[in-house]
Amino acid sequence: MEALLGITGKGYTIIASDNNAARSIVKMKSDDDKQKELSQNLVMTYAGESGDTIQFSDYVERNMRLYTIRNNIQLRPRAAAAWIRTQVAESLRSRKPYQVNMLLGGYDAPSNTPELYWLDYLGTLVQVPYAAQGYAAYLTTSTMDRYHRPDMSLDQGLDLLKRCIDELHKRLVIDVGSFTVRVIDQHGVRKVDIS
To answer: What is the pLDDT of residues 46-63, one digit of tens each?
Structure first.
């Protein structure tokens, strides 16, 4: 019962994920952070099998850090998304594929553009203006489709996110609980409280 949301606007990307850790019908904890800050302008949020998500997200985080140390430069969001997609596609062809779905949100400083990528466990990668993964996709995609505009201010983007989360609370049978929200813009990554 995982919910990942991403929205881009004028100069920012918003990434949100629910805080529940559950297996079958049991909620094990409600303060699980399903996001990794991969660099100053890049955040990955993930959902899937709990062992795969933790192992794969740590693998990606460490390799991004290693690339930065070796080359003294951080990967741009598009390059990072392509590298992560390659890792998922290669694992798919192995004996133990990762069952991980992701949203990758970032801000490309050289071109001053926000970027959001939707990536699934089959290695499908798409750049999108807004996205949802998990059960959130069934209930919030139409809301984002109706109200999203590329020139939205940050406040308007956060209002759209609140609207999507309210829709989940109203229509989803299971309580999705609270969300972790991060904004990525030219100033870097910061956590935002939307309650």
So the answer is: 998 888 999 999 999 999
**Model pLDDT, residue 21:** 81
Contact 63, 39 (CB under 8 A): no
> Could you give the CA distance from residue 89 to residue 83 in angstroms, rounded to a whole number?
10
Of the chain, the end-to-end C-alpha distance in Å amounts to: 21
Half-sphere exposure of 138 (CA within 13 A, CB side): 8
**Could you identify the residue written with the tokens 């998500």?**
53
Q: Are 191 and 180 in contact (CB under 8 A)?
A: yes
Domains of the chain, with CATH numbers? 3-192 (3.60.20.10)
pTM reported for the whole predicted model: 0.93
Cα-to-chain-centroid distance, residue 110: 22
Sheet containing strand 130-134, edge to edge, reads 130-134, 3-9, 12-18, 179-185, 188-192
Using alpha carbons only, give the angle 167, 192, 143 rounded to the nearest 5 degrees: 25
